[in-house]
Amino acid sequence: MEAILFYGLAALAVVAAIAVVAQPNPVTSALALIVTLCCLSGIFGLLGSPFIAALQIVVYAGAIMVLFLFVLMLLNVEPERSPSGPRLALVAGALAATLAAQVGWVLLQTDRGTGVAGFHVRTRQMAMILFSPEGRFLYAFEMVGVLILAALVGAIVLSREDLP
Amino acid sequence: MSDSVPIDHALLLSAALFALGTLGVFLRRHLITIVMSIELMLNAANLAFIAFSRSHGTIDGQILVFFVMTVAAAEAAVGLAIIIALDRIKRSIDVDAFDWMKW
Amino acid sequence: MTPLVEDLVITSVKIGVLFGLLLGLFSFMTWAERRLLALMQFRLGPNRTGPFGLLQPVADGIKLFFKEEFIPERAHTFLFLAAPVIAIVTAFTAVAVVPYGPTLELFGRKVPLQIASLDVGLLFVFAMTSLGVYGVVLAGYAAQNHYSLLGGMRLSAQMFSYELSLGMSWVGVIMLAQSLQIADIVDAQANGFWHWNVVLQPLGALTYFIAATAEVSRTPFDFAEAEQELVAGFHTEYSSMRFALLQMAEYVNIITVGVLAVNLFLGGWHFPLPGVAASPLWFVLKVGCVLFVIIWLRGTLPRFRYDQLMALGWKVLLPLVTLNIIVTAALVALGVL
């Protein structure tokens, strides 16, 4: 049952990712990316991390992609005119395929451990690791907060109209 | 492992998505589509993290995904702000239009 | 029957019941809103179709069904058709994790009265609400009409501005109940109304209500229906059943807001005084009260201006809800709450 869901979501994710790369209209690319993100969220849920799955939809599909869509509509983009030619597409495709093969080979060679049956992380465990001082990630968590503040200020300043 | 989601295939999916993202960065000429392809690559990395977290049985991969997601959000926000500023200057978001630094 | 088939049957029955209840409540709410608004405005509402006008939603449905459906020539056909579907799917999916009664004992097994009890229930509701923005923004964009686009972008900006305060107003409640599952949050409010979160978290309840009203774009924040300003906002070009779908999505969102308000802040299915058994009846009565208050607000308050609305969301609600989180966290850490 889980395997069927996984393969279905994986196939949809790959098709949508190809649409992201191949569609000339950027709005359609954005929508295809949203579909990919939702499929990945489902796969995360299947792999035992419901919290990350929900967070993926809330943060990525629900906020970042809305931001993308807004900027696309603000800039009123036209669909791309003809891409740079079939020869470049072929070379790029060959390079990407090589990259896929290499990355896949490296990933499969990595030690993957024995795994735990029925691995399912509860939110409480994640909170304990993120927030408790002996959980090793408290400092990183606070720094990420500062990083987001810096990005917020940077984005507001960069998009102001009265700066050269 | 007795679970029915094959980790190997999840890792291959991650590699495939990463390569597709790279293809997007190579081929596309719209700045925004390039940033979207980068987001696709980040998501492929997230998938690899989660798959390894599952196969090792530890939670560290998921914590890292949490951080990667927030950093990606910050990067997307700043990247889009830069694109808006560039569009304001040059009235175009074609990558080839920004060649002021060429000799 | 194997356990899997049993589970599927029970879940299908639950889905059927909930779907039917939501559709029925949606029709009833359209009627109730028109009658109540009319009574508040010193006139009668629809009272001719059927007794007390109760068949008015049926008449509306038949009328909408027979209207001509057209797609504007320059519209993006796929997005135009997909936007109402996204709106309604996210609206209904959000209700799937919300419980509406205590766990029943049927045929020797415990049947929780919710379709899916997720470990991260409240976060899932938040995720579906975030996806609901797409219904609006795509509907506004797809029609390729200035008014639709402006209305859609305004409304979606409003929605995701208030989403932030909405989510953060739940954090206090989650801290008190120590769980993200809504059933646990309701059970933490048992035994008397002094345990209800509206008493323990008044600021959180207030910010939730304001943020939720803005999120579903009801008065005083209803720009999508601002007929005087934007023709009809993002659903200008929609007619017949697609328009009905968008309206249904909006009302189901309002019902979700009411149901969550009852579950998170008003004690869910528990009676206000200890000693009386919990039952879905109290839940239904409380949801009715909350929906009445939402309709009452529509009849009473004038509409905000858009910049006032955004200022309220970012400059007032967000600091308030952050203050609520800090105070609640301090009190929980000190062991007071």
Describe the structure.
- The complex is a heterotrimer of chains A (164), B (103) and C (337).
- Chain A has helices at 2-22, 26-46, 50-75, 86-109, 123-131, 138-158.
- With 164 residues, chain A is an all-alpha fold.
- Chain A folds into two domains: 1-80, NADH-ubiquinone/plastoquinone oxidoreductase chain 6, subunit NuoJ (Four Helix Bundle (Hemerythrin (Met), subunit A)); 122-164.
- In chain A, helix 1 (2-22) packs antiparallel against helix 2 (26-46) and helix 2 (26-46) packs antiparallel against helix 3.
- The relative contact order of chain A is 0.07.
- Chain B has a domain at 30-94: Helix Hairpins (Orthogonal Bundle), CATH 1.10.287.
- Chain B starts with 6 loop residues before the first helix and ends in a 13-residue tail after the last helix.
- Chain C has one domain (67-334).
- Chain C contains twelve helices and two strands.
- With 337 residues, chain C is an all-alpha fold.
- Chain C has helices spanning 3-40, 56-66, 77-94, 121-142, 146-177, 182-187, 197-200, 202-215, 227-230, 240-265, 280-300, 306-334, and strands at 104-106, 109-111.
- The radius of gyration of chain C is 21 Å and the shape is globular.
- Chains in contact: A-B, A-C.
- The interface between A and B is large, with 86 and 73 residues.
Comma- or semicolon-separated keywords:
heterotrimer, A: 164 residues, Four Helix Bundle (Hemerythrin (Met), subunit A), 2 domains, 74% helix, 0% strand, B: 103 residues, mainly alpha, Helix Hairpins, elongated
Q: Tell me roughly what share of residues is in helical segments of chain B.
A: over 70%
* Mean pLDDT, all residues of chain A: 87
Tell me the radius of gyration of chain A. 20 Å
How many β-strand runs of chain B?
A: 0
Gist?
The complex is a heterotrimer of chains A (164), B (103) and C (337). With 164 residues, chain A is an all-alpha fold. Chain A has helices spanning 2-22, 26-46, 50-75, 86-109, 123-131, 138-158.
Topology:
The complex is a heterotrimer of chains A (164), B (103) and C (337).
Chain A: H1 2-22, H2 26-46, H3 50-75, H4 86-109, H5 123-131, H6 138-158
Chain B: H1 7-27, H2 31-56, H3 60-90
Helix pairs in contact in B: 1-2, 2-3
Chain C: H1 3-40, H2 56-66, H3 77-94, E1 104-106, E2 109-111, H4 121-142, H5 146-177, H6 182-187, H7 197-200, H8 202-215, H9 227-230, H10 240-265, H11 280-300, H12 306-334
Helix pairs in contact in C: 1-10, 1-11, 2-10, 3-4, 3-10, 4-5, 5-8, 5-12, 8-10, 8-12, 10-11
